[in-house]
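Note to self: user wants both folds in one dump. Writing first protein now.
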Amino acid sequence: MFVKPQLETSCFYTLCSAKVSPPNNVGVSVSVPSLETSKEPINKRRDKNLHQSSYVGVNKKFNRINKYNSSDKPNYVAHETDLEKRSFERNPFREEGENRRVDARILSKRNIGSRFGDGNVNGKVQAKCSMKWASYGGCIPLMLQALETVKDLDEALKPWEEKISRKERSIILKEQSSWERALEIFEWFKRKKCYEMNVIHYNIMLRILGKAHKWSNVESLLDEMDIKGIGLINSTYGTLIDVYSKGGLKKEAVRWLERMNERGMEPDEVTMGAVVQMYKKAGEFQKAEEFFKKWSSRESMRGEGTVKTMIGRVKNGSQTHGCLSSYTYNTLIDTYGKAGQLKEVSETFAQMLREGIVPNTVTFNTMIHIYGNNDQLGEVASLMKKMEELKCPPDTRTYNILIFLHAKHDDINRAASYFTKMKEACLEPDIVSYRTLLYAYSIRHMVSEAEELIAEMDRKDLEIDEYTQSALTRMYIEAGMLEKSWLWFKRFHLAGNMSSEGYSANIDAYGERGHILEAERAFSCCLEGKKLTVLEFNVMIKAYGMGRNYDKACQLFDSMEIHDVAPDKCSYNSLIQSLAGADLPHVAKPYLRKMQEAGLVSDCIPYCAVISSFVKLGQLEMAEILYKEMIQFNVEPDVFVFGVLINAFADAGSVKEAISYFDAMRSAGLPANAVIYSSLIKLYTKVVSRSMVRQAEELFENLKKTGDANEFTFAMMLIMYKRNGRFEEATHIAKQMKESGLITVLLSYNNVLGLYALDGRFKEVVGTFKEMVNSGVQPDDYTFKSLGAVLMKCGVPKRAVNKLELTRKKDAQSGLQAWMSTLSCVAGVDDDEDGDGDGP
């Protein structure tokens, strides 16, 4: 899978891993620790971190060092100029000391300390926040708790007024759970003349507002920075590129990258990562790789001759990147993985190990997801072993990915075992864990296992989403437990939270399995709740169509207007396709015209369905009228429409009409397919004309060159040659068919038998008849008509042939044996001969 360099894992400084927040889905998103802790050699970084522990705080309970910026996301706040870093850390001990003197008053006046220590105030969320806030040390936890419990900012921050440091202001802004509160605090700081708000504070607010998609606020903040002369720094551009990209505004993100380039500002590693992420999110993997390589080359040139070089050497035309952060490596691995470049994934991971960068859980999760999705479960197992070697414990997301991958590869037992292992590792399965396994159980009809999981989710008050709910409805239906399926549906209906998508999914589940009554009941439930949308109508119309209740389908469609629901393209298509497929083109035609009047016909598919239905009924005139109507409305026919009409007129022997549609198709620039060529050959076989034969031969040769010549086209050519008395060419076709194994159906056998009988090749007739019987193809009246002609040509009286036919009709098996014996005797063929001779 990947290169496995000789590696002494004991040299790595491995951080203890706590549980991570539950993911929103099984997919992997790259988010890694701050860059400021990853650009130094690991041992040096460890010493530095331990030296600063009195400042950043040590959480002894969990035996790890916590820094205020130790989240799993790239930290743009910590990425500053040297000057800003110095001012940021200006005499922190003095400021903290001064602030601690007010703590006692806070505790006595507001009892915030007791509330802070009470883990039951806001449940689990409060407990998590308390643990994180405590890790900051000093008075920051009390400030954050005061802001959480006291709305008025003057009152909440009064004990620390005029003493809040730059660093503390940054933390306060970052820790706000809502953008409104963060903006309120930001404005409060600005109103207090004693607080200077620098570019770092503005960066924090840009990120907060950008994540909330408050683009007008972002623009206002940028205007304010311009007015105040606060220059944009590297991390500002990185922040803007990141938030606009993640907000779905890629053009705006690219605009900020261009502005950065116009200023002659080179992206640093964090900004480079944001740009790569932007291209990755847009699916432009080549652009992502090209940007990284260009950035790598510039950094290599700029760092040449210095101790701290961002990029290493150039080997074989590709960049070897060293001393990058784990975040950058993870981003590259994820980008290569999404692009399907597994070789580059492997090489990047190997390079990461060679450079001494410790892969974290995000790294492994990303790689496990990549290799698992590419059906390389052996590599997934290798990665799990590597995690163990590096003492990097799996987290909840790791197990979620493993559950998903093994369920996807139909190893449900292994998937379930990882769910158990997660619990054994003292990790709490999250909602994704349950939903993934529950869905896997449902599609396999593992009812008891699914119900056990549902009971566990109910005990934990975990919500079952509508997608999983409808999957379980299908499970019960397909398991033959119709009553249980209805009770399951009613549980969610009565809860009153089911959306239109949920109702339509359940109606569809019943309709697809032919349970029309239950589908109608579910539709009525939706009607009672006054939640009817076009979705419910569409799936109910589909259900009626599948159940052949065409009158009800039309009635339901016509009632949409009463319920103030407008039919959409899917509504019309569903009804029209059902009616056309039921040989009711006359009923479908008015709905097609209504669809056209509503401006919902964007392609020829509905027209093709109705035209095909008229053709099937032999009403070619109506099919042509509809075709002309389609052209009149500027709806362009496709190759399938032309194919239907060409084949219809070919069957009718109407050369002029068939050729005219073929010419119209070529004029429209549409290439003919094998079906159309076969239709034309079939047409030419019905016309005894030398010019038609030549055209058929040209088409046949083209089909052979493209590999599209099939048994039917060979049979048609044989018929054409036979009708034109060209027995030599017909016999050659028969020989090719036999050599290619293209005599498998009754039509082919009868045509070959008829040819041999007409040409007096009696041994071949007997041999082909034996092959036909041995292959299990049942002869029909046409077969025995050809065989009877052979017998009479050999002098057998017609009375004897009629007697053979009478015997066959009385007893098919004994009659068949009588025919076989008579033919062999008359044609002089022994039972062990196969009739492959060249003549009679």
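First done. Writing the second protein, which came from a different request thread.
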Amino acid sequence: MTHEEHHAAKTLGIGKAIAVLTSGGDAQGMNAAVRAVVRVGIFTGARVFFVHEGYQGLVDGGDNIKEATWESVSMMLQLGGTVIGSARCKDFREREGRLRAAYNLVKRGITNLCVIGGDGSLTGADTFRSEWSDLLGDLQKAGKITDEEATKSSYLNIVGLVGSIDNDFCGTDMTIGTDSALHRIMEIVDAITTTAQSHQRTFVLEVMGRHCGYLALVTSLSCGADWVFIPECPPDDDWEEHLCRRLSETRTRGSRLNIIIVAEGAIDKNGKPITSEDIKNLVVKRLGYDTRVTVLGHVQRGGTPSAFDRILGSRMGVEAVMALLEGTPDTPACVVSLSGNQAVRLPLMECVQVTKDVTKAMGEKKFDEALKLRGRSFMNNWEVYKLLAHVRPPVSKSGSHTVAVMNVGAPAAGMNAAVRSTVRIGLIQGNRVLVVHDGFEGLAKGQIEEAGWSYVGGWTGQGGSKLGTKRTLPKKSFEQISANITKFNIQGLVIIGGFEAYTGGLELMEGRKQFDELCIPFVVIPATVSNNVPGSDFSVGADTALNTICTTCDRIKQSAAGTKRRVFIIETMGGYCGYLATMAGLAAGADAAYIFEEPFTIRDLQANVEHLVQKMKTTVKRGLVLRNEKCNENYTTDFIFNLYSEEGKGIFDSRKNVLGHMQQGGSPTPFDRNFATKMGAKAMNWMSGKIKESYRNGRIFANTPDSGCVLGMRKRALLFQPVTELQDQTDFEHRIPKEQWWLKLRPILKILAKYEIDLDTSDHAHLEHITRKRSGEAAV
């Protein structure tokens, strides 16, 4: 990247004006997107305008369109809904309304529009753009605008961000608000589970999502529901029989409750709605179970946005500004979206078209096609759900293999969900599944028992590690481990854990030279709050920790806002890995995040203090600074606190807070439950194949590099990577991967905190086409 390009970002917006509006149903995280659009727009030198009340404000003009300032978006990040208001607008659907909207924009010299909303809102934006020159012509004829004004505003750039809790927009893995809606749903499901167990009840829960079953599907995976009804996959004709059989089977296995999730748009094969009341009446009539219905309603749209949605909103906001300012009359209106963890730009109308195709396919009862059009991520969810909920484990274990599951390292939320799906998929495949307590130590001491189906019942929502976990590595107890592998006839190992699980895997590979018993396939599922396992962009448990840190930061910011002129220094976990500090910094709106991967000097500390001194002169009289626990051995949290206290004398007070082990606790977030469940299923499927492949002369002998892997998410795909191949990519001294994708997000953190830095625009999303993307991607 050249020096000239660096400065281009800072001057990209000079002389340009951007308007931002939120439209349609509100979604948590919209405010994060608005804040990012405003701040990055101002950073590039552009003027940015709020349009209040969605398209209605665009049509009505006047005070509805106001210029935004840096400070006007402060404290917005943690608020749900949309601060600038949203409205369903009839006027904009008529050409007359769009004419007034065009007039309001031209008069203010605004030619860039960022629309945050669902598919309806984005379609409206595209229509507006295609009519733009005709609208200007009419305004000129009527003498409402001058020729000069018309020339200045000759074309309109439009970029859309999808804000919708339904996740019903094709082309995006996640829409802004979906993750937060799942948080609300899971909080309620967890609460209902406890009361249902007390009374041995059946609960029917109805969730939102219009014609899209995403929320219902992920909820059922995340809570281990007995059944889910979604519009895309209507049940077979004899579903009533099947459902009742399924519910009574769950009860006979010793469960005290049943949970059925219904999407509000659920239908049967003939397109007839299946309502939650229908299901309740069926269960009561046929089985006589005490059954209750809970319709979740608008609570799903409420509450504070999750860490994921804040980061998603912020990243998409930055990308939207870049897409607008780089736009020409020839670039099609685009949608900025997320694929895996990559920001991508997609042509708006292609996405709208595919989204419409889904509705059409469902209308024509072509359900398989509708499912395919929803994309890989949706289909993967459906496949795993069907396996876990509808397949009966075989009774006989003849010809089966024995696979052992264990946890290694520090506890992380979601470990239990991974164990549960590994055990159950193993049983469904007809295998014998063993669980090992206390990691490699338990494997050496023989703390091993067989797990049946109900052994892992209700584990999905439980935090920590129920099997027990230790940091002990296997090397020094190879003899005992080998003896137990033989004694229990273990033919494959699923290791769920953090950096020690990975280094333990490397030791097992090394040990194969001396011990034949260690020549069995193994797979590592990354599970650690630090997110520092090589070979994976995400690890199970990191999302939960991030949300915990976020909630704490929100409370601390609130306290600081009340007392004024106060700066908080917060220490996060993560070892040497700065993932938690950086991502929490983005999600909580921190002024700085000190991490090991980006070395800092006393001059940087000085610049940060100076920056806060300047900030105290504005209306935003508080500061938040995050420090990763091992970012620097000499500049400790105490040192930084003392420095800030001394330098801030008379200007601001400093306080410090070490978050500690609360970051490893808590109930796993929907993301971690779902991610862990899918990783467990994927690992067990791989394992069965590998064991069959390694079967020689009546025993298992696996001695190739690809029989010891890390299962990780890389950009857009779930990949199995041999642990030995990952060695070169690892900094063992600091227990981190040498390259980490999230470091590219650090400039965004600094720009949003008002630092005059260079925004590296080299890693920008280019326009892709949705049709090609559908077939080639693999999403989790």
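Dump finished. Worth passing along: The chain has a mean pLDDT of 91.
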